[in-house]
Predict the structure.
Amino acid sequence: MADALFVLTEQPSRNTQHIGMIFLFDPSTAEEPVTFESIVDLFRRRIPLARGFREKLVRVPMDLDYPYWINDDSFDLEFHVRQAALPRPGTRRQFLTTANRIMSLPIDMSRPLWEAWVVEGLDNMDDVPKGTFALLFKMHHSAVDGISGMEMVTALLEDESIAQAKMPTEPWEAEPVPDQATLLRQAIGSSFSSPMKLANALLRNLPTIASDRRKMNSGEIIKPAKVKAPKTRFNSPVTPHKVIDGRSFAFEDIRRIKNAIPGATVNDVVVGIVGGALRRYLTDKGELPDTSLVVTVPISMRTQDQEGTGGNQLSFSFIPAHTDIADPVARVEAVGAVMREVKAYNKAVDARTLAKTTAAMPGMLIGLAMRTMMTLPANDLMIMSNAVITNVPGPMEPKSLLGARYVAGFAAGPSADGIGLIHAITSLSGILSIGFSACRELMPDSEFYGQCIQESYEELAAAVAERGKAPAPTARKPKAAAKKREASPPRTAKSAANRKPRASAKSPRPA
């Protein structure tokens, strides 16, 4: 169902629901010249490794049912892989301007929902070698969550022998688009069967829900305290005009800070850094609330047997970023205490139970609800959080593209009415990056916010060193990337959580 929600909330004039991943590569480490043509050829060879590359959406008329995924029968690789070059001198500011423009444009929803831009000429950027080029991935959130998006990207970074071993054994088959009458018949059938499926899902999960309720009443399960988000500039209507940026750090430096704070995790440290950056930014504007800002933290529910299935496997938690705490170490400790409560609660109640139940809800009902919500004035939307922090882990061993070494990067997520700032944390090849994207009108000075992230990190590192719990981090400057036949009826299954990986994509799957 999460896939469908990202489709139904797509509004090219306001809410664009695509994510971005930016990777910087040093071609001097490659044995052969890395050209745009060689990168396109790499895509051609590796596309079978991730199903999302060649699947497109088919929407049911009037959104009377969930949209479906089918294998694109007119897939055109050269439409999706594109080229751009910076004029001299090739500065970070020039790259950011290019990336912002790319990320501000909506994705063509009639094709597979991704683009890859090769941007050359990054010859005058801090902390990356001259001649570095960027690969900017742009993917619609309905097609991927952070984990499956990283799977698509790392399909390009595998060694040739590893990639060949992972190739599907069954041939790929294109699928024609079902005609409107077929889709309507399917929707009508689903409208009759969905209530029964929902009732069955409720009955199956009712014992678990009742048991969880008894445990909460007895105190065996402690439900985290509710948090109320204050109003900030980010809780406003957005436009499609985006700004993206990021800061990169040695993963070992983040781990060193984590190890110096008892009980802390890498995620706690990152949330603490972001909380410090928000505190600095809003203080500068004279807008820091007395109470803590609240951040939405997506939690992946993707199991091991769901790797490679694409789509979204997410639940969400709302936690205080403790922007009301000035001391950076105390902030991380406070964040960690809340995160442990949330994790214990989610484990105790099994968040997948609710996800399986909601996935059985009729598509017609979801479509009607989303159309109604999109007609509401943006200022009337409930403020549930002030920003988003999502973590996208990747492989930590050194990675390269056609021999060009990965040197830095960051990710950017979709902003939406009421939440105009999202942070995407990526870890790849020994580098942890804190990327962010925001509505340009709500954050006209994204470079300053990037500096706030850097200064928040440095403040925390210095505080940890001063307490004598760990040596100061290594003197490595952050690598900042930038300154974003007859058509057969579709399948009826709704829940992405029940999908199994398949070697070849022969049947459409629901969004």
Notes: The chain is about 35% helix and 20% strand. Confidence is low (pLDDT under 50) at residues 306-314, 357-368, 475-507.
